[in-house]
Amino acid sequence: MENQILELKATSSQAWIDCVLSDFDHFLKDHADAERKASGMAMSLVAKYPNRTEIIPDLIHTGIEELEHFRLVYKIMQKRGLQLNHKMEEDIYVKQLMQTMHSGINERFRDRLIIASIVENRGFERFKMVSEHIEDQDLAKFYYMIYESEAKHGNIFVDMALNYFPEKEVLNRWEELSEKEAVILNALRIRPTLH
Fold it and tell me: For labeling, which of 35, 40, 55, 78 is most exposed (least CB within 10 Å)?
């Protein structure tokens, strides 16, 4: 899957990016939470599937990279005099995606990886929008760097799934789940958050 970005079925709206730019401090705090959750998710997969040795190095690398992104977002927050959220909000978008997973042990593992890919690809799309629309050039450069990283993460999770499942199965399930993701995304209340 190298250098191929899997296409999501819906695009984020102008209303979403307008909302983000109207309350960017809130978005930054949510972005910091999202990076912490992404790092934790990668490491939870290591803890849950220690026998899946083929993917553990990539999961560790991804967890560290997401934590580094958190560190960088927090530096921006410090410059703006912002504190982290006292309590991380539940991510309704991710929760609803997780509810679409199949229940069999292997199918659930496959779907977790594919959903991680979809979430990373949505992050890529939204961070790209931020980089293209924000007027502050330093923030535009920062979000350009972030969205390039997210694009790689989307492919990494699909590549992980391909270690264990046939390509046709993985891509067909990616299509199914991305259709469901589009419905979930379009039903979300627009807020100055990543999801």
Answer: 78
Q: How far apart are CA 106 and CA 187, in angstroms?
A: 29
This prediction's pTM? 0.94
Distance, CA of 174 to CA of 121 (rounded, Å): 12
Residue ranges in the chain whose pLDDT is less than 70: 1-5
Best CA proximity match to 160, nearest among 63, 47, 55:
55
120: left (phi over 0), alpha (psi -120 to 50) or beta: alpha
pLDDT of residue 148: 86
Phi/psi region, residue 193 (left: phi>0; alpha: psi -120 to 50; beta: rest), is beta
Are 125 and 12 in contact by the 8 Å Cβ rule? The answer is yes
Contacts of 37 (CB under 8 A, 6+ apart): 88, 91, 94
Homologous superfamily, domain 14-187: Ferritin, core subunit, four-helix bundle (1.20.1260.10)
